[in-house]
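pinned: reference chain
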Amino acid sequence: MRTLRLPKSGRIMGALTGVALSALVAAAPAVSAQEVKKGGTLNVAIETDVRGFDTVKGGVFGQTGEIVSRTIYEPLLGWNSETGQPEPLLATEWSVSDDNLVWTFKLREGVKFHDGSDFDSEDVAYHYNRILDPEMKSSSRSFIASIDKVVPVDPMTVEFHLKHPWMALLPYLATTSMSGPIRSKENVESDNENRNPIGTGPFKFVEWASGDRIVVEKWDGYRDADEINLDKINFRILPDTQTRYASLKSGEVDVIWTDRGPTIVEAQNDPKIVTLTTDGAGAAINLMNGKKEPLSNATLRKALAHAWNQDALVKISWQNTRPAVTHPLGAAKDCGEANYRKFDIAKAKEYVAQYLQETGKTEVPEIVMIHTTTPRGRELGEIYQQTAKAAGITLTLEPVDQSTLVARTFKGDFDITGWRIADGADMGPQLYAYAKIGSSYNLTGFNNPELDALADKMRVATTMEERLELQCQMVSMMNDDGSIEYRGGGRYYAFTNPRVKNVPPPYRGVVDVTRAWVEE
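pinned: its structure tokens
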């Protein structure tokens, strides 16, 4: 048994160094006690409402859900942005068996949930075992399926039993997406968690007015309460980007998240606005539904892949504020072109002709693309509609709200949908979930035994070098299939007014305001 005790620098697991590009739980810039303004309310503008906070019922977090949840919840581990390493948080130290199949975590003593109940190993085990239970049909299950079970040894000790050695365990225990933050077992069992979340984080949930706001207040029972400066955070739900931006300029809100190119360019040129930006992995994408006609036909998918113009979207919609990419691994690994099917109308027309010959049809069936009702979604749909038409494919657009898009995507009720591959310290679990036959996150219907075997090989790789090389091979095979089209890589932005201090650059598009403060 090897014991790994981390100092604050978190310098272990050298193979992971450089893989994470930003902090999951970012270290705040040093400021003297005299400079910090205590108290007050921070107004943060978010794009969409949250579907829910329960790990199972809430589905998956988008940027909005994760921004809010970071104030309420904590995962087992933190993540150091400088070293790309895990750090103690709810767990203070951990050890691994010689066969790398059992990881033992010692939990921080004296931690309380917002309702005053004790945090212990039962909460951790219940949280993860619930996700892993096939009957729960959790959207997060495929990401952590390498975990066999989680066992509470005593109140302050918990074991993670793996099906095989898994290098992504520590990054995934540090994630602040849906599978990472630990909920109160009692609150989940009482069926209150989805609308009334209880965590161990620095802020406690107060109010949720659907479509309008979510309010959290500083929790005096937090172990590091002296480091929390704000009294309250008011998350304003403002779907329209221009409204969010105008509210920031007027001082009505203090922080906004956006990925709208024109707004980003304008804000970057405004000396009265502070720009926060991070380069990372992940990508905005289009998904093709290969589970049903007409896109179950590989030839038609390839025609659409060549009809998609990522460069045009990056220029027109993103205004070159995000890079065009051929894979979602970011700087962790250069996969080259990775068999990405680039925009080529002539090639798209060739595949259309081949499709018509194969099927005996006289024309391509109408294809429906669902997209969000946001300006971003509308521009995406309109650009694709025009390029598809040039290739001889009729694309009908169906705008829906964000919650409907997510629900329909998971139900497979779409032909084409906008989506994203989230940034992360290790992209392997996401690639595995997208590609694995039978995975709940195999949204496009990949059914390639060779890709399936490659995903299994990648998941059990014991060196990061091998793991990343296999991820490149997976991406190349997925690109060749034509089911996933990229529409901009991982570059993320948030903006504040100059009075707001101590907000780090966004990670995965997620803004961490837990230790912010506001000047007079």
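why pinned: Residues 93 and 189 are 28 Å apart (CA to CA). The longest helix spans residues 464-481.
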